[in-house]
């Protein structure tokens, strides 16, 4: 198996560093003018067997491509380059739902590359941790009983342990939805509402995640696994998370650098629209969408959530 990664942001670069333990890796970035140290991942030196390039053609000789682009970028990228990727094994790593189609990355890839085998790599993992070689466990979702195990072995290393599932919908939705709830958790802490309120938002947020994912065909055990509960726990509790930090700044009423990749912001809008379309109640996600747009104050959002009709758990 020959491997290339498209997207030389923090995560694509970290994956390249990890997978270089198994052999050569191509890493493409549209503006990859650096070669040995990515400014998005300071302090990490690229091993010699990573070919960092801004020439897409040169990395497309690989048979297996990991797509490490943000979810809202993917559709446009596939429109431009999907034909050249079609037929290759494609592994999606984006954690979001496309705001214009309300579909996840795997559906976008399937539409653009109908002859490709598609997998999803997701789970609790900060790029900096992976790049430093800290032990990490992820979920690899692939519907193919042949390609799935092959990928699982090729993408695992002594410090990167992949668990295999065939539940693409569950793995993908867990990764996308946890980002929305992480923003909510950040808001709670940023606004000084306390750890008890955060535990409540995580738990009720997880209930929303499992409800929506279940309606969209996910298996419950996937949501309680690494890609759901595992990643939710990480992202709602660590200031390393950009989604959590975005929430912190919203809650505290402080500015936030909008150039930072915060997948949960657009995904909250997509989730709210999706929930409305299928008639599912997602009050926390809907409130995060409004807060991220600046359409409601934190005080009003808390009041609205706390005064909803009382119900059974
Ligand atoms: N950073 C992490 O810790 C981490 C961990 C797991 C998963 N992820 C997921 O990986 C995905 C990418 O996140 P990241 O952390 O690498 O983001 P990032 O902001 O570090 O990098 C995004 C990259 O996308 C590139 N890009 C933007 N628009 C583009 C376009 N039109 N064409 C080509 N390239 C374009 C940018 O140049 C940049 O290199 C996200 O879905 C994120 O949720 C990130
Ligand atoms: O920095 P975040 O919030 O995008 O989170 C990164 C990863 O998704 C954590 O698993």
Automatic annotation (TrEMBL):
Source organism, top-level taxon: Bacteria
Keyword annotations: Cytoplasm, Lipid biosynthesis, Lipid metabolism, NAD, NADP, Nucleotide-binding, Oxidoreductase, Phospholipid biosynthesis, Phospholipid metabolism
Cellular component aspect of the GO annotation: cytosol
Binding residue positions for sn-glycerol 3-phosphate: 95, 123, 125, 178, 231, 241-243
Entry's EC annotation: 1.1.1.94
GO molecular function terms listed in the Swiss-Prot or TrEMBL record: glycerol-3-phosphate dehydrogenase (NAD+) activity; glycerol-3-phosphate dehydrogenase (NADP+) activity; NAD binding
Active site: 178 (proton acceptor)
Family recorded in the similarity comment: Belongs to the NAD-dependent glycerol-3-phosphate dehydrogenase family.
SUPFAM superfamilies: 6-phosphogluconate dehydrogenase C-terminal domain-like, NAD(P)-binding Rossmann-fold domains
Encoding gene per record: gpsA
Domain Glycerol-3-phosphate dehydrogenase NAD-dependent C-terminal: 167-303
Entry keyword Lipid metabolism: yes
Cited function: Catalyzes the reduction of the glycolytic intermediate dihydroxyacetone phosphate (DHAP) to sn-glycerol 3-phosphate (G3P), the key precursor for phospholipid synthesis.
Protein name, as recorded: Glycerol-3-phosphate dehydrogenase [NAD(P)+]
